Amino acid sequence: MFIGYEESRVAFGRDRLIRGLLISASLLGGIAGAQAQDAPAVAPQQQPAGADQGAADQGSIVVTGYRQSIEQSLRQKREANAFVDVITAEDIGKFPDKNVADSLQRVPGVIIERDGGEGSKVSIRGLSSDLTLTQLNGNFIASADSGDPSRSFNYTLLPANMIASVDVFKSPEARLDEGGVGGTVILKTRRPLDLEPWSGFLSAEGVYADVSDKFEPQISGQLSWHNPDDTFGVLVGATYQERRNRTLSAGTETWAWWTYDRANEPATDVNGNPYANDSAISYWSENTGSTTQDGTRYSGYWAPQAVSESVQDQQRKRLGIQATAQWKPTDELTLTANYFRFQIKNNFTSNVLKIPEWGYKNFFTGASFDDSGTIMQGANFHVPAAGTGCLAQTPACTMETPQLSGQYSREKVTSNTFDINGEYEHDRLKASFVVGKTKATGGPSMRFSVAAKPRLTTASQTTNGNFVSDWSFKSGSLDMQFSPELQQNLMNGIAQIDTGSTGSSFTNSTIQQTYAQIDLTREFDGFFNSLQVGGKYRDGKVRRETGRVEWYADAATKLRYQDTPAGAVALPEYFYDKPIGNINGGFTASSFPGINFQNYLDHLNSTYGDPVHVTDDQNIYNIGEKIWAGYAQLNFKTDTLRGNLGMRIVNTKQTGTSTDTLYYEDDYCVNGPGGPFSPAPVGPDGNCQVIPQDQRERRVFSPNDESKSYTDFLPSFNVSWEVQPDLVLRGAIAKVIARPGYNDLAGARSLTYNSDAFVYDRQQFGARPGWFGNGGNFDLKPFSAWQYDVGVEWYFHQGSVLGATLFRKDVSDFIVPVVLDLTQTVAGETVVVQQYSTQANGSKAKSQGIELYAQHTFSFGLGAQVNFTYNDTSVADIAIDGQKVGTSPLVGSAKTQVNASVFWETDKFLIRASYNRRGEVVRGIASGLNIYDDPYEQVDLNASYNINDKLSLTASIINLTKSEQRQHLGNDTKDRFYSNVYAGRRAYVGVTYNF
Fold first, then answer.
1. How far apart are CA 222 and CA 527, in angstroms?
2. How far apart are CA 719 and CA 728, in angstroms?
3. What is the Cα–Cα distance from 818 to 879, expressed in whole angstroms?
4. What are phi and psi of 28, to 5 degrees?
5. Which is higher by pLDDT, 817 or 390?
6. DSSP states of 291-336 as a string?
7. Greatest CA separation found in the chain?
8. Which of 210-214, 240-244, 332-336, 416-420 has the lowest mean pLDDT?
9. Where are the alpha helices (DSSP H) in 395-498?
10. What's the distance, CA 875 to chain centroid?
11. Of 130, 354, 115, 138, the residue nearest 243 (C-alpha)
């Protein structure tokens, strides 16, 4: 082939442009990040002329591996009618990342939440993860967590090597299920009639994490077969993984405004401005500031009620199973049956060191503040010199910090999905159906918490086990300093179990959905080339169960062991004989003593017998949701113009039975000589002598039956215009909805009434008189939005693109958390529930922004992918029962996101560096202020080497930069530290055999 001078000059200029783009991508990414593919999956269109020309420019180049997967993804994106991105596996069992969510975060506009360092939840274009609809092969897949049920899919359940491709729809089509205001993620698995007979893979991999200092295995495999006639096939696959996730974190509890004069010294931000929602602001319950041992007085400042450091060790075992069978009785009919089982077993222990506010009266020696003087940044607590201060009292005081606490849990999450679908094609008619059921259960079979204090306090003896407790916020995290003898004093028996903070509670949930769908497509000649119509029925059920485990000292009377003197005894073997080590992120501490849960639970079992599983049978929580949907979609196409317009009509009927739980805290400590308002006698745990729980607390359960029905009309329009063979313009308009989260939907309230006697005993721990609590809001309306998209894509070379998309969502009835004093009817009385936490609908808001992206690969294998997303969200009014209660930004929104990847691939070798950065994210409300995720960035490395056509070696480093996830409170400063989490740097090595 001959190229003229003018063509050569243009090609040279284009190559200079491409090299400039690659350099920009490298600079933008630092080491650059792996944007694991832009692309969609819709009905494929005829190959555009521009793509053929690009191939011709390159000669007869055949691409494979990672480059092939991203070019295939880009081709699908180009051929789609809607705004879609696609991620495609390089080969069977070779997904681009170790976790599907980790790959999704490299798609423009997608951010993820992490659990133990792995991607767990996905958000699209600045909206919360509950507004992302995740489907398996086009249908809902149930997932559950160890807590309240959620619509958001838990991606840690899903083995990445089972997935063939992922489609991310950012603009809807009428044929797609509703429910994804942010977007819809469709996970696609393989089918045997699409693969070669007796093909598959075997893989073995090990992972090492710096936080666990262990090497752990993963094995997986898949086998596909079909007969020579291509009429019957079977595919089976499985993945088993063991992993120790060790998370190091720091946090704060209940930031409050401390002042001696609330009327004249109200809470302010760092600029001295009072808050408009002052009733939602947390004030320290005793209405005081703090005074040091030498009389220095502090008033008018923010301070946390407690600071804590935590080490969580999680033993995770993950199992994934797929079984697919296909039968093709005629050339026109294909029947497919799928079964999927995803399972995770989590056994974890957490150890926590906490410095609460308990020391401010007797041990407080000083504090540090931010530049405004209104946010505490550190506090010092020291035991006074012998014979001075509270040591001169009888009995002498003891410093109860740090509180040593922790939790042990055995959990299991299982998701089972079975479906049968059929596809029939004759002449110009296509018909398909699917019927199936998906069900997930999750939660602990055992969860137990223990707390201890490093001191001995009895009526006749007091001994301190720690003499210094200092904390300070440093470098975006938390530092704690204690007496050097703390660990040894625990080994010497100077400790007591805090029985009031020792006990059990758990929540298990079940989510299931049965579905049936039929779709018909009729093709035509002319501008309108096909009509699609269909209908779908979904019957969903959600159930939640709460309860606890108990060890009874007297089974006949159900006397809990914590309510006996023996329950307060802390033997030395209850603690590790050495401080917990390998603290290489998250926080710093001079020493980290911990509770040995194995020894403690062995003692309980040998002394009191097996634990008793107690369920709260009266706490009923059942939600039903039946959905009927029908649609019509008209597709059109010319040589340069294609698209669709359609209408989806959806009727939703929701029913719910939930339970108000009322806790009446009548008292706490045994009365002193002068009655309930006199000092209580000292109990065996060194605190006041506590009244047994069933005598001091009353529980009243009140069920609620609720139902509602609503119908939504959801029009959609998508159009793509090939202005030139290498230039595509797109546009889309649609109305979208997402139903409220299950936990928000149930109207159940959990309310607590603190009596005056209870507050007298517990005021130093933050107790205030009256009603407090939280609850759902069954009257929530569906989250709805009109969305608009305009985009341009320049396919300047084979497998290459430069593109931009403008997007806007005009949101109505978005759902946000609120905390406020609210008048409610409780037990037939009208009362004010203080700092009531619930969900409310916002009025109107907008989320708008731009996505910029580029991709290119040189013929010698060097390539890059880069994208940038800017998202601007407005602040909107929030209302309950038609009355404005405040304003809020859209929860889950991030203003900026950057992804960049640089890779080099040959026939034998691939190395890829991936960089991801997302900006600040708005979260829920605490202490009357929004929580914000700090900006987060991470670099990952991936490499593979093909020994031969079948055998390959792989290696990866995840979180090369050892990044930590931080949060702060309020949008006026980052000095109100909220949390910091380090989940570690991981290294993977493995071998894969494809056949």
1. 44
2. 10
3. 10
4. -65, -35
5. 390
6. E-TT--EE-SEEEEEEEEEEEEEEEEEEEEEEEEEEEEEETTEEEE
7. 106
8. 210-214
9. 486-491
10. 23
11. 115
Q: What are the φ and ψ backbone dihedral angles of 609, each rounded to 5 degrees?
A: 85, -175
Identity of the residue numbered 797 = H
Nearest to 22 by CA among 863, 946, 661, 668: 863
- Which residue type occupies 50? G
> Nearest 5°: CA angle at 575, between 569 and 577?
135
Cβ–Cβ < 8 Å for 969, 978: yes
Interatomic CA distance for residues 381 and 466, integer angstroms: 10
Q: Which residue has the tokens 């929860």?
A: 891
pLDDT, one tens digit per residue, over 543-577 is 988 889 999 999 999 999 998 999 999 999 999 99
Are 739 and 722 spatial neighbours (Cβ–Cβ below 8 Å)? Answer: no
Contact 633, 646 (CB under 8 A): yes
Alpha-carbon distance of 167 to 187, in angstroms, equals: 7
- Cα(955)–Cα(948) distance, integer angstroms: 17
CA 33 remoteness from chain centre: 22
Is residue 236 within 8 Å of residue 323, measured between CB atoms? yes
Name the more confident of 704 and 469.
469
| Beta-bridge partner residues of 871 | 849
Please report the pLDDT score of residue 81 as a whole number.
94
Q: Is the pLDDT of residue 1 over 60?
A: no
Q: How far apart are CA 402 and CA 659, in angstroms?
A: 37
Q: Strand order in 132-136's β-sheet?
A: 84-88, 163-169, 183-189, 132-136, 139-140
Q: CA–CA separation, 127 vs 873, rounded Å?
A: 10
Average pLDDT over residues 310-315: 93
**φ, ψ of residue 150 in degrees (nearest 5):** -145, 150
For residue 311, what are its two tokens? Answer: 């080490």
In 760-799 the beta strands, taken as DSSP E runs, fall at: 770-775, 783-797
Q: Are strands 506-523 and 862-873 parallel, antiparallel or unpaired?
A: unpaired
530 sits in which H/E element: strand 528-550
CA separation (Å) from 950 to 67, 199, 200, 223, 921?
18, 11, 10, 14, 44
Residue type, 564: T
Contact 374, 390 (CB under 8 A): no
CB 780 within 8 A of CB 806: no
Q: How far is CA 228 from the centre of its chain?
A: 46
pLDDT digits (tens, 9 = 90+) for 149-195: 777 777 877 788 888 889 999 999 999 999 988 899 999 999 999 99
Q: Are 531 and 461 in contact (CB under 8 A)?
A: no
Residue 437 CB contacts under 8 Å (≥ 6 apart), including other chains:
417, 418, 419, 512, 513, 514, 515
